[in-house]
Amino acid sequence: MIRKAQFVVSNTDPTKCPKPDRAEIAFIGRSNVGKSSLINMLTGVKELAKTSQKPGKTQLVNHFMIDDRWYLVDLPGYGFAKVSKDRKEKWEQMISEYLTSRENLCGVFVLIDSRLEPQTIDLEFLNWCGEEDVPFVVAFTKADKQSKSQTDKNVRAFLNKLEDIFGDIPDYFVTSAEKHAGKDQVLSFISELVSE
Ligand code: GDP
Question: Where do the TM regions start and end (predicted)?
């Protein structure tokens, strides 16, 4: 359980992140994947991460301090159709700089919408993470949106793709912010990561 979650800072420049004096866990995914909802579920703070931020807004790296012990980082989403090429390039530059240079980063949750068939943009992003040695895990979101068998089918299809890419299946979680599913599993996994 998380007892305390406080906003620390937002910025567009990864070099201005807080001093790397604590373990850090980041969350990223396609716009609308359910990232804010998942962060709010995990921390137990409604609206800690704002749900459904509009794509026109400045894209920020948001740091939160959790239990005075670790940083939770909300990264800007990718894959919004309406985003200009220029903004996309800025996103790529900022995110790749953050993910490859942040020395205290010990885990990145890449969120995948469990309603969808495997999406190229997600697979490409995960492939890039693998190439760059970014320590990622996968969290499927919105598992309550369809039957359990449909969720299982979509999750399996995605994992099969990952197995094709990586030769094995990375750690993954199936979650629902609506039903609070997967919360304990994700939090105990994070707890282990940040105490290493
Ligand atoms: P973000 O853009 O990735 O931060 O996504 P949001 O958290 O804002 O969620 C996008 C939309 O999906 C919102 O309308 C949420 O209410 C909805 N949503 C997010 N997670 C869940 C979930 O687990 N179950 C259901 N049923 N809806 C969800």
Answer: none
